[in-house]
Design a protein that fits this description.
This protein is of the alpha+beta class and 303 residues long. Among the domains are: 92 residues, 434 Repressor (Amino-terminal Domain) (Orthogonal Bundle), CATH 1.10.260; 107 residues, Immunoglobulin-like, CATH 2.60.40. It is 32% helix and 17% strand. Strand 2 and strand 3 form a beta hairpin. The protein starts with 14 loop residues before the first helix and ends in a 7-residue tail after the last strand. About 27% of the residues have low confidence.
């Protein structure tokens, strides 16, 4: 399926409207109902109805999931999302007297992780418009010292977020704020990443979801870093004490429970050569356990 299906032939000038129009075009070209679209992407059909019709701004992970579900090259959709997100951030700055604030940074978590309290696939309203931002944030940005502190906090947030694909643009912004020309370099590779945190090692900077499944309300993803040749599991919509584990065909397995919030990610396992990796989510108190498909290194010939 090709991108660029804008009904008027040319993309709208407003980046947010351009994204909405492309989502609508892709949805129409797929021939899928909102219910079928929701089933394929593991997002509620009501969420897709709001995002496609411009009632709310979609999370980046939802756009990524749409491209994966329809077997599309995600580059164009994600580029449209990035421009729309930047436009929303600019609008926020105009609303608050010229002090810019990232739409992701205030209205929706950049990455679900240990105690982030938000899920990348959550049904909750994580796409509030700039005018819905808490007014109290303005008082936190009134002196230069606070700005410097905010830059330091941004860098710390990138390293603590848990390896979502959102980390790449966030890391670039953090690097710019600290005067660094390049984002942090991954600190491990393959077997050397076994049992390590994907955020602390910077492996999350190029993280991508290979596949996902559900265990009742829990959404389970297997995440992969090409730079680190490693994978990890992530669960969202989970309850306290639910467990996520990442496993590989070499017999490695690492698990982490939800301590607070409703999401968590596991330590990493190596994925190289013809190895496969998968993630599992277990309901609290020894409940049902479900796992994703066993996924090879992307691009590896099978058979």
């Amino acid at each position: 399926m090709a991108f660029g299906h804008f009904s008027q032939g040319q993309p709208p000038e407003d980046p947010v409207e351009a994204l909405r129009a492309e989502l609508l075009a892709v949805k129409q070209a797929s021939g899928l109902s909102y219910a079928r679209l929701g089933a394929r992407t593991h997002y509620a059909k009501s969420s897709w109805e709001r995002w496609v019709n411009g009632k709310q701004f979609p999370p980046r992970a939802a756009v990524e999931s749409l491209a994966a579900a329809l077997e599309l090259d995600p580059e164009r959709l994600l580029a449209l999302w990035e421009r729309a997100d930047e436009a929303r951030a600019d609008a926020t700055g105009a609303d608050e007297g010229g002090v810019g604030e990232s739409a992701n940074g205030a209205g929706e978590p950049e990455e679900p992780g240990h105690g982030a309290g938000g899920a990348a696939v959550a049904e909750a309203d994580t796409s509030a418009t700039p005018r819905q931002r808490p007014a109290g944030r303005r008082r936190l940005l009134f002196v230069g010292a606070a700005c410097l502190l905010g830059a330091a906090v941004s860098v710390a947030a990138v390293l603590a977020t848990g390896g979502d694909s959102h980390d790449a643009p966030a890391a670039s912004k953090a690097a710019a704020a600290t005067g660094s020309a390049q984002p942090p370099t991954p600190q491990c590779r393959a077997a050397g990443c076994g049992g390590k945190d994907p955020a602390a090692t910077h492996c999350g900077l190029d993280g991508q979801t290979l596949t996902l499944t559900r265990n009742k309300d829990i959404v389970i993803e297997i995440r992969y870093s090409k730079a680190c040749a490693a994978a990890w599991g992530r669960i969202t919509y989970a309850s306290k004490s639910a467990i996520v584990d990442a496993d590989n065909s070499a017999g490695d397995s690492f698990a982490t429970p939800v301590h607070w919030g409703n999401d968590v990610y596991s330590p990493m396992v190596a994925v190289t050569g013809r190895m496969t990796a998968w993630a599992c989510g277990t309901q609290p108190n020894g409940g049902a356990r479900e796992c994703t498909r066993h996924m090879p290194v992307p691009g590896t010939p099978q058979g």
